[in-house]
C-alpha cells in the first residue's frame, strides 16, 4: 500500500497495514497526544522514527530521548530517508512535508493505520465512544498493570499512574483509545470493543447523526464473530441501541445502573468528606459481586470503571484484583485534573467539549464543592460544534453558579459567519457571560470566588493554560498573562 489516504485526508478502510513493511517512519505533527503515543509504541518495537512539529515541547524532547529524530518546524527536508509518513486529520494538504511525501510516492498512513500496524500480534481492546474514551482506556490499562498483565497501550492523554501515554510491553494485550471523530477507529481489529456512549458529534465530518450511529455499527462489525465481544453502556440510549442491533451477530456485555444491565452498579456512596472525592459502589452480575472504591469523582467515572471491570472479567482477571487496580486510578490529564489551590479555593481543568461532557464535569464539581459554589471558564471548541449545540451547551453550563465564555477555539476549522461564543453566552441563566478578554475574565473569577468554592476551566482548546494562572491570581502573586 503506497498511499492509503484519500484527498480529504481521511483513511480509506481498505485493510490493516503490517509492521514490517513500514520501514523508517516519519510523523508530521509528532508532538500531538495521539501521534506521540503511536511513535512511542513504534520506538518500543525498534522501528526507526522521526518527526516534526510546529513548536518544541516536552513531548518532542521525551521522544528524542527515546531515539526519535525530531525537528521543530515543518520543512520538506525533514523527511530525510523516510519510507512511511504518518499524518493525522489535522494535517493540511499544504503542509510541505506532506507535499514532499506525495511527490516521492511514499506510503502515507493515517495515525490510526500506523497504530493498527504497531498493535500487530497482540490481542486488541479498543475503547470507543463519544465521551469517556481516554479515562476508560486509562482505567483498563491501570487495572491490567496492577493485576500483573503487562499490557501495551496507547492513550490520547497523559495518565499520572502510568507516567506516559503509550508503551510497548511484554503482555499479550494491547489497550487502545479508538477515536471516532474522523472515522479512523474503523482501522482497528479488536477482539474486545468498548463503547461508552453514542451521541451525535463531529458532524463536521459525518454530516448527520445517522452517519455517526452507522459508524459505531461498523465498529461493532469489526469484532470477530467467533470470540469477539462488545462491552457497552446499558444506561446510554445510543449505546443501548447499538447493543441491541449487535446482539444478533456478536456477543454483547452491558454495564450500568439499570436493571437490565449484565453488570449492574448499585450502592453508590461517598466515603469521607467531599474533598477527597472517594466513591464506593457495588458491581453485580456474571456470577460475581464486587465492592469497588474509586478516587475520581462523578457518576460518569463510576460507569467508566464498570466498563473497565467488565473488560477485566472478559480477560479472566480476578474480580478482587480488578477492583484493587481500579482503586489506584487517580485520573487522566485534563479530566477533572487538579491544578492547584489558594485561599481555600480549588482550581480544576477538564477537557469536556460536548454538552453531555460539560454536564458530567459540572455534576462532579458539584459533588466535590458540596455547599460551596462552582465557577466556570469555558472555551467552545469548533465553530461547527458551537453552531450545532449552542442551546445544549448553555443549559449544561447553567448548572454552575457563574460562567465566563471565551471566544471559540477554531482548531482545524475556518470561521463561520455569524457563529460566535455569544450563541452560548446569551442563553446562560447564571451570571458571567461572553468574555472576549481572557485576562479580564480571570480577574473577575478570581475576585468572585470564595473559600470552599471550585473554579473549573473547561474545553478542548488552550483554555487549560489558564488554570495555573488562576491559582497565581488567587494567591495574589501573579497576573493573568
CATH second-level architecture of the largest domain: 3-Layer(aba) Sandwich
Q: Helicity, in percent?
A: 25-40%
CATH class of the largest domain: Alpha Beta
Q: In whole angstroms, how far apart are the ends? A: 48 Å
Number of domains: 3
Instruction: List unreliable stretches of 5+ residues.
Output: 1-15
CATH topology of the largest domain: UDP-N-acetylmuramoyl-L-alanine:D-glutamate ligase
Q: How many strands in all?
A: 21
Largest sheet: 10 strands, mixed
Number of helices: 15
Shape: globular
Structural commentary:
The chain is of the alpha/beta class. The protein is built from 15 helices and 21 strands. The chain has three domains: 20-110, Rossmann fold, CATH 3.40.50.720; 121-327, 3-Layer(aba) Sandwich (UDP-N-acetylmuramoyl-L-alanine:D-glutamate ligase), CATH 3.40.1190.10; 337-475, Protein-Tyrosine Phosphatase, Chain A (Alpha-Beta Complex). Strand 11 (229-233), helix 8 (237-246) and strand 12 (251-256) form a beta-alpha-beta unit. The longest helix is centred in the middle third of the chain and has 16 residues, at 299-314. The radius of gyration is 22 Å and the shape is globular.
In short:
By secondary structure, the chain is an alpha/beta fold. The protein has 3 domains: 20-110, Rossmann fold (3-Layer(aba) Sandwich), CATH 3.40.50; 121-327, Mur-like, catalytic domain (UDP-N-acetylmuramoyl-L-alanine:D-glutamate ligase); 337-475, Protein-Tyrosine Phosphatase, Chain A.
Amino acid at each position: 500500500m503506497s498511499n492509503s489516504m484519500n484527498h480529504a485526508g481521511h483513511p480509506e478502510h481498505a485493510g490493516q497495514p503490517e509492521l514490517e513493511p513500514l520501514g523508517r517512519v516519519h510523523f508530521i505533527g509528532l508532538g500531538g497526544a495521539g501521534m506521540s503515543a503511536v511513535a512511542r509504541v513504534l520506538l518500543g518495537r525498534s522501528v526507526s522514527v522521526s518527526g516534526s512539529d510546529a513548536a518544541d515541547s516536552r513531548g518532542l524532547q521525551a521522544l528524542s530521548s527515546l531515539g526519535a529524530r525530531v525537528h521543530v518546524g515543518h520543512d520538506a527536508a525533514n523527511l530525510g530517508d523516510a519510507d512511511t509518513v504518518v499524518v493525522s486529520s489535522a494535517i493540511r494538504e499544504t503542509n510541505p512535508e506532506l507535499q514532499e511525501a506525495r511527490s516521492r510516492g511514499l506510503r502515507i498512513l493515517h495515525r490510526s493505520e500506523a497504530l493498527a500496524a504497531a498493535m500487530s500480534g497482540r490481542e486488541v481492546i479498543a475503547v470507543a465512544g463519544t465521551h469517556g474514551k481516554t479515562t476508560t482506556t486509562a482505567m483498563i490499562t491501570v487495572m491490567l498493570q496492577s493485576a500483573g498483565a503487562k499490557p501495551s497501550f496507547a492513550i490520547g492523554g497523559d495518565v499520572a499512574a502510568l507516567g506516559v501515554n503509550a508503551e510497548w510491553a511484554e503482555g499479550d494485550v494491547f489497550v487502545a483509545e479508538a477515536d471516532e471523530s474522523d472515522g479512523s477507529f474503523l482501522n482497528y481489529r479488536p477482539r474486545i470493543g468498548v463503547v461508552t456512549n453514542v451521541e451525535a458529534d463531529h458532524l463536521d465530518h459525518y454530516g448527520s447523526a445517522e452517519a455517526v450511529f452507522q459508524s459505531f455499527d461498523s465498529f461493532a462489525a469489526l469484532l470477530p464473530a467467533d470470540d469477539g465481544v462488545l462491552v457497552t453502556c446499558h444506561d446510554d440510549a445510543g449505546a443501548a441501541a447499538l447493543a441491541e442491533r449487535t446482539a444478533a451477530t456478536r456477543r454483547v456485555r452491558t454495564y450500568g445502573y439499570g436493571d437490565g444491565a449484565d453488570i449492574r452498579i448499585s450502592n453508590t456512596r461517598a466515603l469521607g468528606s467531599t474533598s477527597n472525592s472517594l466513591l464506593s459502589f457495588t458491581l453485580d452480575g456474571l456470577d460475581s459481586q464486587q465492592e469497588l472504591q474509586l478516587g475520581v469523582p462523578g457518576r460518569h467515572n463510576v460507569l467508566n470503571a464498570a466498563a473497565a471491570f467488565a473488560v477485566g472479567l472478559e480477560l479472566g482477571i480476578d474480580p478482587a484484583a480488578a477492583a484493587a487496580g481500579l482503586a489506584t486510578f487517580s485520573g487522566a490529564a485534563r479530566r477533572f485534573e487538579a491544578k492547584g489551590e489558594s485561599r481555600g479555593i480549588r482550581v480544576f481543568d477538564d477537557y469536556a467539549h460536548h454538552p453531555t461532557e460539560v454536564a458530567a464535569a459540572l455534576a462532579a464539581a458539584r459533588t466535590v464543592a458540596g455547599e460551596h459554589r462552582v465557577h466556570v471558564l469555558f472555551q467552545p471548541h469548533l465553530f461547527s460544534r458551537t453552531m450545532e449545540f449552542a442551546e445544549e451547551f448553555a443549559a449544561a453550563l447553567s448548572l454552575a453558579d457563574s460562567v465566563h465564555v471565551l471566544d471559540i477555539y477554531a482548531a482545524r476549522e475556518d470561521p463561520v459567519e455569524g457563529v460566535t461564543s455569544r450563541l452560548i453566552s446569551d442563553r446562560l441563566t447564571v451570571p458571567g457571560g461572553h468574555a472576549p478578554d481572557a485576562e479580564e475574565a480571570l480577574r473577575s473569577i478570581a475576585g468572585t470566588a470564595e473559600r470552599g468554592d471550585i473554579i473549573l476551566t473547561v474545553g478542548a482548546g488552550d483554555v487549560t493554560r489558564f488554570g495555573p494562572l488562576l491559582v497565581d491570581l488567587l494567591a495574589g502573586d501573579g497576573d493573568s498573562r
